[in-house]
Each structure stands twice: as structure tokens, then as C-alpha cells.
UniProtKB/TrEMBL annotation:
Residues 54-81 form a coiled coil. Keywords: Coiled coil. This is Uncharacterized protein.
Length: 181
């Protein structure tokens, strides 16, 4: 019987060891599963963070590009305005010295009128377009303000509305191929 008891005891001990190892495996599996879940959650958070950061950078880059295009248009308009101012100064000099230019011979001299024409010819096309766009926008804004002020005129509603509509009809549209302002 001793062998039988010893054998059962050995079997019981093996069974207990198997159960202990199973429990250890289950515990370790749960620990690893929790660790993997934590890493997955952390990875998702990082993906979301970096995805949002990338989106923020894209938005900022697009905004910077729009601002850069706006600044370029403003710069072009200022360049055209500077050329025009220089041409006007040449026109003034021409008017002031017209008598001298007509009565005296300056074989190598270029008349102020020619200088003004040359200056106007040097204005880049995109600068001219930007200046025209800016001027149109400024005129249209003034027209809108005048139309708004028409409602303050002490007249009847119909008269104020007619005045307002007449003023608004003066707004200049963009040339073909360009968007509305």
C-alpha cells in the first residue's frame, strides 16, 4: 500500500504542480494581455496625437501659403503704385519744364513725358493686376459703406431701399476668369 500511497502522492503532487503552472500561465497571459492592451492604447493615443499634430501643421501651412499669396498681391500692388508715382513725378516735371523742352534743343536728353511712358511700361503685369484688384476692392468697400449709410437717410423705406439698391449696383465685378470679391 505504501507504493500505492506514494504513487498517488506523486500523482497528486504532479497534478498540484500542473495546476500551479496552469495558474501561473493564466496569470502571466493576463499580465501580458494587459501589457499589450496598454501598449495598444498608448500607440493609439500617440497616433491620434501625431495625426492631430500633422493636421495642425497642414492647416498652419495652408494659412501661411494664403497669407504669403496675400502679401505678394499687396507687394505687387505697392510696386505698381510706386511705378505710377514715379511716372506722375516725371509728368509733373514735364509740365513744369514744358516750355524749356520745346524751346531748347537737348540732343541727348529724353523728355520727361518719354520717361513717364517708359516707367509705366516697366510695371510688371501682375503688379498692375494686383493694383487694379486692390483699387476695385477699395471702391467696392466704399460703395457698400455708402449703401449702408443710405438706410440712415430720413426718408421712407421704399426711397431708402431704392437709394441702397442704386448704390449697390455700382459695385464693380471681377473681370472674366477671376473670382468675386
Amino acid at each position: 500500500m505504501t507504493d500505492l500511497n506514494t504513487q498517488m502522492t506523486t500523482e497528486a503532487m504532479m497534478q498540484a504542480e500542473i495546476e500551479r503552472l496552469r495558474a501561473l500561465i493564466v496569470t502571466q497571459s493576463e499580465v501580458h494581455r494587459d501589457h499589450v492592451r496598454g501598449l495598444t492604447a498608448q500607440h493609439e493615443k500617440e497616433r491620434e496625437f501625431y495625426g492631430n499634430a500633422a493636421q495642425d501643421f497642414r492647416i498652419r501651412a495652408e494659412k501661411a501659403e494664403r497669407e504669403l499669396a496675400e502679401h505678394r498681391a499687396q507687394t505687387d500692388a505697392l510696386i505698381a503704385a510706386a511705378y505710377e508715382d514715379a511716372a506722375k513725378e516725371a509728368d509733373k516735371a514735364h509740365e513744369q519744364n514744358e516750355y524749356q523742352w520745346k524751346t531748347r534743343a537737348y540732343p541727348r536728353a529724353i523728355s520727361c513725358e518719354t520717361v513717364a511712358e517708359r516707367i509705366r511700361d516697366c510695371v510688371p503685369a501682375d503688379a498692375k493686376a494686383a493694383l487694379e484688384t486692390r483699387d476695385r476692392a477699395m471702391r467696392n468697400e466704399g460703395i457698400k459703406q455708402a449703401a449702408t449709410a443710405a438706410w440712415d437717410v430720413p426718408t421712407g423705406y421704399c426711397t431708402a431701399k431704392r437709394i441702397n439698391m442704386t448704390i449697390l449696383s455700382l459695385i464693380e465685378k471681377e473681370p472674366e476668369g477671376k473670382g468675386d470679391e
